[in-house]
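S., here's the first fold you wanted:
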Amino acid sequence: MQTLEETPLRLAGVIRESIVDGPGIRMVVFAQGCPHRCKGCHNPETHDPEGGYDSTVGNVMREARKNPLLKGLTLSGGDPFLQAGRFAVLAKAAHEAGYDVVTYTGYTFEELLAGFLRHPEWECLLRETDILVDGKFILEERSLSLQFRGSKNQRVIDAAASLAAGKAVEREWEYQ
């Protein structure tokens, strides 16, 4: 079993303080690799799974702990579900450190549920996610009035309630 220091992540980048990727001051961890390739994506450099750079869960958590103002971690991309097992380790470490976790994905909640048998690590990451923002970015549904989302089809989902119900349970953002 790998330690936090040894658990590898393939990253496109990290923003140490953001107020536009979820409620409160957040560290945003951008996964490298995305199968969705949404037209109009604001992070197209994250699509190639061979791009980016190597890091570890330990490196990310060390940086997070340096900022006493952080409310949580946001896992974005790319798509964190391409490295779901590794990002689940990061999300668990974030929870243990007292942070909440927002995860963005181009998959829908229903696609994730349907994929659990083929990708059991998807369930692991979903169980370590507090808020899931799901669905591909659709340029034709783009809206600048949406908080922390790019297009109207994307949903803000309570991950724990959704897993318990076996269906997507949408929620509003909470600000603290």
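And the second, which I think is the more interesting of the pair:
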Amino acid sequence: MTSVPDAQDDLRLPTQPGVVQQFWAAHERLADWLIALFWGLPATALTGIGLHMTSGFGVGLHTVSSAGVGVPIAGALLVAASCVGVFLRRTRPILAFAILSLALIPAPFTPTNAEQLLPVFGVYCLAVYRSNTAAWIGAALVEGLSTLYFWALSPLVATRGLGHDPLRWAPVYAIELLVALALGITIGNRRRYLAALIERAHQLARERDQQALLAAVAERARIARDMHDVVSHSLTVMIALAEGSAAAAETDAVRAAAVMRQVADTGRDALAGMRQMLGVLGGDEPAALAPQPTAADLPALVERFRALGLPVVMRIAGRLPDEPAVQVAIHRLVQEALTNALRYAHGPTAVDVVVDAEGDPIAVVIEDDGLPGMPSVSAGAGRGLIGLRERVSALGGTLATGPRENGSGWRVAAALPVPAGAQTSPDSPAAADGFRREDTA
């Protein structure tokens, strides 16, 4: 048996190319530690050694030369502490950049200026993990503030390193920052582009699943609507026939037997319709196809309710369009309204069915004159009217149901727009005489 694929199988993302990239992608913290050790550790050592040499020989700090080993240790610890920014670069790149920039504080007093690369790495992290704008702003800040800082401290510094001459420092450091920007912007743009593609793939998967869910809900509603149309109508007819047969059993056995045969025929028709829908749902064997009811079936439908004792009067004006959906909707409207009238109306003397197809929209009105003040408690869940409203709404029409204005009886009124380009059907009940037809009880 073939297994059902997972919903995400067709949107599975490719793995990282190459064994090395796969390794680093799976061990991000190891990469942070290696950067901190192999980049921060040499910078820390060179800073401590440089400060110790310059202060020990009297060629570095004129004002604090007597501090001994305290200044080299403090400078080395400051550079080491700035390496904490390496571990924050992915989640908090701005804070990481600020911490890495602290490594420039002892830079003017060391001959090697090994600390200058830590803020450069911070600018790279801004471009990769934040944005290009943040990276440009960070590069401009560190370039400008470091130049001003070295210029302000140049009278106190006796070393002849790069940090002693701001005019040399500014262009050299600007080149380093531009290289970091170029690399960071390239890699950052690629990361953001891949992130957008991944998010789009996930969004498409969610939309696909939502569309499938909506389609399933709509299909369930359609099946429930069709089952209600078949079962509710047939059961209502069977109940009415059975009650009539029971009433006539003692006085007219022949008629009672004929009515019971009608009950059996109605039950067989309902059972056939149920089997057809269950066959479609199960999918185990092909279901037999049967034509949908049309407006041409309205006279037979009305005659069936008349046989049950419902005083139906039908009037159809104009020619109905040949659009199948419209004709099915009209048939189901009349069927459901007459079924409810048979079930709930108290002593109606007339049930009017009017289908006016002379204008646009098509008007379908079914109303009865049942006794006022005698409402019946519904025996169903209201699914029939819900199904009618869904049918009418799907065609762009409107449906109104409720008591009549004079308080007696019930009224169902629908307006169905004529589909664009629809032709009039030669099989419509009004087509025989072209304009108006009236069927009376």
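Why I say that: The beta strands are 312-317, 351-356, 362-368, 398-403, 410-416, 436-439. DSSP finds twelve helices and six strands in the chain.

Talk tomorrow,
H.
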